[in-house]
Amino acid sequence: MTLHHVVVGVDGSLISVRALDWAADEASRRGVELVVVYAVPDSDEAGPVLASAVTRVGARHPELPVVTRDAVGGPVRTLVRESEGADLTVVGTRGMGGVAGLLFGSVSLRLAAQVHSPLLVVRGDHPCDDGRPVLLGLDGDNDEDTALYAFQEAERRGVPLRVLHSWTQRYVTPELPPLVPAASPGQEQLARQGRAENSVPRFALARLSDRHPGVQVESRTVRTGPAHAVLEATRECAVVVVGAHGRTHRFGPRLGPVADTLLHRSHCPVAVVPTAK
């Protein structure tokens, strides 16, 4: 195994072919090897699918080194194992079974919460390299790993980075109107809160902006639920980047509401970046 490579899960379905195309484009953009993985009950079934994948990648990227690997077992466990040491792991969202169909329902959360490298879930129907901006759903001032990946992705693509920071207005105790025209204590509190919340993206991204001066950053704060705000913004972007803030649940690993919503409803591919638990 090379030190730098992109892993993609295939199963012969149309959606896995699209995931293969995205993975090949990503590997070519990074200048790294592509590892094509097929998780099957019987390794004899993998030969034709993997051979077809190599032929397709060779036609699109003749210079790209490709390694194939069949693995007997479940797709989630296989991809979690293969993701270790990978620059990126790529899968599709729908299908009749196998890897392409695994990202449906709670299984998507299990994979996203367990992978060791960034996970790209291919959604939407626009091309991989169509000049759209990269979207970063910023969850907090300490989410630097996710922000760094978003900067690198925008830099690789040569496109702007849109940063979306969302906050919900906190409850302020109702009060009577002041007797003289002036800002009430509650209004002042909301104003201070708004200024503080708006400063979070600038403070969190200033250091990364200095390190990546070629990336044009468009930062915006919205006063609505983060999952809805980021979901709406995915309509105009090439890929959305979010952190995998995994939490332990009695039924297995679970993610937060933003990643959960995007994995099931995003209008563009979703890059989920592992963060400290």
Mean pLDDT: 79
β-strand amount:
15-25%
* Contiguous helical run count: 8
**Structure summary, number of beta strands:** 12
Poorly predicted spans: 169-175, 193-200
Alpha-beta content class: alpha/beta
List the strand order in the largest sheet: 3-2-1-4-5-12-9-6-7-8
Describe the model.
With 277 residues, this protein is α/β, with parallel strands linked by helices. It contains 8 helices and 12 strands. The strands form 2 sheets. The protein has a 10-stranded mixed beta sheet, sandwiched between helices. α1 crosses α2, α5 crosses α6 (185-211) and α7 runs parallel beside α8. The two termini are 27 Å apart. Mean pLDDT is 79; it is low at 169-175 and 193-200.
Topology overview:
Blueprint: E1 5-9, H1 14-30, E2 33-40, H2 46-60, E3 66-72, H3 75-83, E4 88-92, H4 106-114, E5 119-122, E6 134-138, H5 144-157, E7 161-166, H6 185-211, E8 217-222, H7 226-233, E9 239-244, E10 247-249, E11 252-254, H8 257-265, E12 270-274
Parallel strand pairs: 1-2, 1-4, 2-3, 4-5, 6-7, 6-9, 7-8, 9-12
Antiparallel strand pairs: 5-12, 10-11
Helix pairs in contact: 1-2, 3-4, 5-6, 7-8
